[in-house]
Amino acid sequence: MLSEQTSPNNPETNSRPAGSAENDAGPPTLNDNDLLEMYRTMVLSRVLDQRIWQMNRQGRAAIVASAQGHEAAQVGAIRALDPERDRFYIYYRELTTMLALGITPLELLLGFLAKDGEPLSGARQFPLHGAIDRQRCDIVSFSNVVATQLPQAVGVALADKMRGEKRVTVAYFGDGASSMGETHEAMNFAAIHRLPVIFFCENNKYAISVPLAQQMNIESVATRATAYGIPGIEVNGFDPVAVYEAVGAAANRALAGDGPTLVEAVVERFLPHTSDDDDTRYRPAEDLEGIRDLDPIPATEKLLRASGALDDALDQEIKSAAQKIVNQATEDAENAPFPEPHDFYDQVYAPGSPGDQS
Amino acid sequence: MLSEQTSPNNPETNSRPAGSAENDAGPPTLNDNDLLEMYRTMVLSRVLDQRIWQMNRQGRAAIVASAQGHEAAQVGAIRALDPERDRFYIYYRELTTMLALGITPLELLLGFLAKDGEPLSGARQFPLHGAIDRQRCDIVSFSNVVATQLPQAVGVALADKMRGEKRVTVAYFGDGASSMGETHEAMNFAAIHRLPVIFFCENNKYAISVPLAQQMNIESVATRATAYGIPGIEVNGFDPVAVYEAVGAAANRALAGDGPTLVEAVVERFLPHTSDDDDTRYRPAEDLEGIRDLDPIPATEKLLRASGALDDALDQEIKSAAQKIVNQATEDAENAPFPEPHDFYDQVYAPGSPGDQS
Amino acid sequence: MAEMTVIEAVREALREEMERDPAVFTLGEDIGARGGVFLATEGLIEQFGAERVIDTPLAEASIGGVALGAAVNGMRPVAEIEFGDFIWPAVNQVIGEAARVRYGTQGRRSAPLVLRVPYGGGVRGGLFHSQSIEVAFAHQPGLKVIAPSTPYDAKGLLKSAVRDDDPVIFFEHKRTYRLVKGDVPNGDYTIPIGQADVKRAGSDMTVVSYGLVMHYCLEAAAALAEEGVDVEVVDLRTLRPLDTDTVLESVRKTSKAMVVHEDTKAIGIGGEIAAVIADEAFEDLDAPVKRVAGPEVPAMPFSPLLEAEFMPSAEKIATAMRELAAY
Amino acid sequence: MAEMTVIEAVREALREEMERDPAVFTLGEDIGARGGVFLATEGLIEQFGAERVIDTPLAEASIGGVALGAAVNGMRPVAEIEFGDFIWPAVNQVIGEAARVRYGTQGRRSAPLVLRVPYGGGVRGGLFHSQSIEVAFAHQPGLKVIAPSTPYDAKGLLKSAVRDDDPVIFFEHKRTYRLVKGDVPNGDYTIPIGQADVKRAGSDMTVVSYGLVMHYCLEAAAALAEEGVDVEVVDLRTLRPLDTDTVLESVRKTSKAMVVHEDTKAIGIGGEIAAVIADEAFEDLDAPVKRVAGPEVPAMPFSPLLEAEFMPSAEKIATAMRELAAY
Ligand SMILES: Cc1ncc(C[n+]2csc(CCOP(=O)(O)OP(=O)(O)O)c2C)c(N)n1
Ligand SMILES: Cc1ncc(C[n+]2csc(CCOP(=O)(O)OP(=O)(O)O)c2C)c(N)n1
Ligand SMILES: [Mg+2]
Ligand SMILES: [Mg+2]
Questions:
Q1: How close B152 comes to chain D (CA, Å)?
Q2: What is the rounded CA–CA span in Å between residue C201 and residue C246?
Q3: Which of A55, C121, C206, C292 has an alpha carbon 20 to 30 Å from A267's alpha carbon atom?
């Protein structure tokens, strides 16, 4: 545990207000190799993220929502889950999640450049939107509309439960999404039916420009769990191991038939909301001061070095491998063509079905 | 206090989870005369309600949602408020509220019979829907759509706050409405801006046929207050004085600028959801057994008799006065004509404004 | 064959589909023990249990969203929206999301859900229990929209809807539920989505309609027949995709056309049909395409004389037919 | 007079109305310090304070509902929906409630709110930042719906919207925000709601349009002029109530008509205009009324060639004009 990092939110709310999960078994303890692998993914994510941001600034990528600051939370969560078993209803800030689930930097870059062969929507949608082939991994992000994935994830879990399949569905969302009515309805429904859902909130304390205090009159999104009689766990999202443990416990609960859990990973958004945003308009400089000092990537590096799992050579290898992968992916993505409109009318309706114009 | 009545819900939830209101001054203590007046209104409401139900059964009234079982909660709440100062965003089960606010049985009957002169919508809408002339009393119920009144009431209170007017807006709703996303959004918004709103939930434990356990995974709607950092008070809705006190404290908070309160009055629905409903399909006979023994109207009568404020003669006077008023109102309402469509195109738009076809 | 009402036909279709395919289930408010406020699901919870007949909280956005999620994950949910007037909280999931699932994933996912929506007036429902709300859905590519008028069509089309691989909005006119009776085959049959039906053949004019008022068109056509005017009545049955072929074929024969619907007139189904006719049958038309529709007020009022003022009646339709015949 | 963009015109109208009337305030996501994601409200919080420029939580249903409540209680809220694509959670309060407040209370209450809605594509917004969503609103009696295309119209119509006593949906095409410039008078002026505007006079055909593609119609008309075809371009400006008088007057003069919009074709604004023309100008028409509109796919895709495939361009419009001219 990166215990020297403390959550910026009120630690009191790190309780489990109702339907306590305290008796649930946690996930297996992570060893140094596990953490090393998580570190590798975080580094790759950061390098790729920086590249995409840079390409946007050069006019080569249309729009980017950066995951910088969210990497530890995302990699920690996936570590506690099973990519083949579980289902991932993500939102747009899940670059690290995607990498951790095996989507390649090239595939992701095809999305950011809106190129042919983009694996989620064929570049019909924004980067990271659409769905990955189900046989490969059940990653879904149907739309840019905030919070719609929450009731959908609940329906997905309902279907699994009806068929007796033991799987966890994770609904990813931000603090901003917690204000939407659909979030309330989703949590309420899942709680009533004890569905195997993890509501995974990445609280970076901003909905674009709107700070937490103007979004809610409480300190922690996890508090909301009380309203549904489910466990709510606030965890430091800069600590990948703490997130792993919280999500692991929630997954165990879900698989045991004990219903949903609300996990809130408190993180920071290191960059503006998206590349279209200018956060100097609204974000006080103090707000970011010191926050980058808590950056989970160097912190994890330090921890691994302290335990002897990482030395200069290995760290160098990890970082230059990431650079190399991203460089190659950039080149390949830039060389890829834009999709031609030859299948423009495909998949409006099922092939051959009434209304199909393909 | 009718302290021999206990709330059927978990008394533990009768706490004030967050932003405690315990320091707020309560309203002035009620004397026997006050209670007598409340009793009078409850009796009138019951007689009128029974009459309308009967007329529906005879095919003379189109549809009725009965307030029977809700009278004590409704009369208790209005007692703590100021009909001239405050604003009432009601829902369809507020017959007693309407009477307590001075709307006459004849006016209400014109609504149930869809007759000309109906004071809320000119019988364009269901009974109890529309709005009372503002100069008379700010009672509003724009639609039959459950929970829409909650964000509206919040906007109403926002306007009062912006203009510096000291008024309370009460948003009435049922347990069923608590599941709607708009309820979440309304409470969240009001809490952030500390608006002078009372969220008054009449929890009769059914949304038409759906019992509480299938609506939520918690025992008490008041628990939800925690999610907004506002006080949540559960109160026995068969006890008009307890409701008066809870609403009075909430009104004081609102007027003092301390923001919204969620008050949950636990009541019973003595009759089917509406006259269109058949509750034998879903409501176990046990469910209603014994509940009528707790009927707040005879209980209040007993209390008033015990204190000497009521004797046989006065009780007789109150009950026959109610009968007489309702009989006369029935006759007048039945004799009233249906509205002719001569103003059918009026008030689609403001008179003279683009689109006005009147 | 058995004579039944529209509501019975809906119930039978639902029951048979649930018997046929274990992936079919239904969810909505009061559909369990209550059997639905119109009794469309009466008896289903007894037969299939509370796992497949789910009473939801009062929360339409989650009804839409949960149905969508379950559909994407291999089930065939049939969600009931209690009244069409209350569908708005669900449209974010239906018009916003479900309609774009297949297109937006390039076919990697689909959303085979059915939304059953009782709609329409003439039931003393007032402003909030009478609305025609089909336009917002029928306008949206990616959705299929059905609005049957008879028990036969209701059963056959609901079965097609359940088996369809795309999201289908299935509008059931409340007034037809018990009013309209007709012969319905026992057991399984389907009616293809996207095909209009000539409910009355005629040679003098084409009247295109759907839902409750289609029956009023037939009544009016009968009256006109006695006056020597032979009216063809086309029942659209599906509002998306529209079967303009059947409509145009009829108009090319009759050379005169009228569209009738209960919903308000402007920017609606009638405008589309009229525009298609006026464009593609331009050379065949002997008269302008007329429309009879609900008036431009926000919804149907409650009081009986006001309600009657709103509703296109057989008389109002017959009057318009006479005018068109005389053009 | 000053040359300004559409976004500047919107901002100026809003600022002047807030200066004029203390009851006017604005609410929405990121409209405070951020100045709105399109900067429509830039500088307003500095001038009017956080009480009158309210950053809301991310919750459109409450934006609609709170605005409605404040409007009913004497204020003049101008709510911003961040993108039209995200308006669906608010329609229960807007289409369901606000549109019926006046009618349903027999005028005892009114709802003078404005919903400002950036909409439309051509901005590389993909399926969920490009939608045209005007039909569901324009279909609803009780609402007024505006869709200006120029800075001059935007300022004058937004002022009229703020002063109007009924709920107004004010659609601002995102692509016009910075693309379209024009002269705008300094200070106060209004443009009446419900009046179309002839943006180019011509004698050979009438082209009816609105929003971004109205400019493409003007471009195409300029091209056609060089080919000897004189096109009249009518900018609807208001989508409810529709100014059919201006449209019909033009068509009676030109005898040929076409409707152009970016939104998908079926059951939309174009159908209504075409139906009205085909009905009321039946005897004057020399050719069928044609429509150029977005294709029947769920929304505008993201990748550039796909986006271009969706969008009606000046070239596509010119081609259609040539065909109509040759009819
Ligand atoms: C329903 C809806 N409203 C508004 C938006 C515009 N929008 C996109 S992201 C965003 C902020 C989301 O904040 P949060 O949920 O905290 O996620 P974060 O971006 O901070 O990770 C907003 C307002 C949207 N996409 N959907
Ligand atoms: C949004 C919406 N969905 C469904 C309905 C149909 N409906 C009317 S009342 C009701 C139950 C309301 O229950 P509750 O809020 O507990 O109030 P009660 O009738 O018990 O007093 C339902 C489902 C509606 N009016 N609005
Ligand atoms: Mg955030
Ligand atoms: Mg109830």
A1: 4
A2: 12
A3: A55
Element (H, E) at C294: strand C290-294
Kindly state whether residues C174 and C121 are assigned to the same domain: yes
Shared-domain flag, residues D134 and D221: no
| Active-site residue, D129 included | yes
Domain's final residue, options D157, D184, D211: D184
pLDDT tens digits, A60-118: 999 999 999 999 999 999 999 999 999 999 999 999 999 999 999 999 999 999 999 99
Interface membership of A223 toward B (CB under 8 Å): yes
Q: pLDDT at position D44, please?
A: 98
Mutate to test the interface with D, among B90, B154, B162, B183 (most CBs of D within 10 A): B162
- Let me know if residue D190 belongs to a domain: no
Ligand nearest to the CA of B73: 2
What is the domain extent for residue C142?
2-184
Size of interface B-D (CB pairs under 8 A): 156
pTM above 0.90, yes or no: yes
Query: Distance (Å) from the C-alpha of residue A348 to the closest C-alpha of chain C?
Result: 5
End residue of a domain, out of D184, D210, D227: D184
Sheet strands side by side (includes C114-119): C53-55, C24-28, C76-80, C114-119, C168-173, C144-146, C238-240
Both C180 and C306 in one domain: the answer is no
Decide if D59 and B158 are in contact by the 8 Å CB cutoff. no
Rounded to the nearest whole angstrom, what is the distance from the C-alpha of residue A176 to the centroid of ligand 1? 6
E strands present in B133-203: 138-141, 169-174, 197-203
D202 and D179, same structural domain? no
Question: Which residues are placed with Cβ below 5 angstroms of ligand 3, an ion?
Answer: A 174-176, 204, 206
With H, G, I as helix, E, B as strand and everything else as coil, classify residue B31: coil
* C315 min Cα distance to partner chain A (Å): 35
CATH of B22-176+248-334, one of 1.10.8.60, 3.40.50.720, 3.40.50.970, 3.40.190.10: 3.40.50.970
Name D171's bridge partners: D117
Both C203 and C173 in one domain: the answer is no
The token pair at D101 is: 């407040």
Interface predicted TM-score of the whole assembly (ipTM), two decimals? 0.97
Residue D8 shares a structural domain with residue D71: yes
* Domain spans in chain A, listed from the N-terminal domain onward: 22-176+248-334
Residue with tokens 């058995």: C2
Q: What is the CATH number of the domain that holds D266?
A: 3.40.50.920
Residue to mutate, D58, D85, D130, ligand 1, most ligand atoms under 8 Å from C-beta? D58
User: Both C204 and C180 in a single domain?
Assistant: no
Please indicate whether, in this complex, the C-beta atoms of C104 and D298 are within 8 angstroms of each other.
yes
> Looking at beta carbons, which residues of chain C come within 8 Å of A163?
74
Q: Give the separation between CA A201 and CA A212, rounded to whole angstroms.
A: 13
Pick the atom of ligand 1 nearest to A273's CA.
19
pLDDT digits (tens, 9 = 90+) for A17-62: 333 444 457 899 999 999 999 999 999 999 999 999 999 999 999 9
CA distances from D144 to A167, A191, C279, D277 (A): 49, 41, 29, 22
Q: Which of D86, D89, D124 sits opposite A181 (nearest CB)?
A: D89
Are the beta carbons of B125 and C33 separated by less than 8 Å?
no
The structural domain count of chain D equals 2
- Decide if D265 is inside a domain: yes
Mutation for testing the D interface, residue in C62, C63, C88 having most D CBs under 10 Å:
C88
CA D99, C265, D83, D195 torsion-angle sign: negative
Separation between Cα atoms, residue C121 and residue C2, nearest integer Å: 27
C99 lies in a domain?
yes
* pLDDT one-digit tens code per residue, A126-151: 999 999 999 999 999 999 999 999 99
pLDDT at B24: 56
Among the partner residues D95, D268, D298, nearest to C88 by beta-carbon distance? D95
CA distance A215 to B101: 36
Which residue's CA is the closest to the ligand 1 atom numbered 8? A146
Any domain includes D117: yes
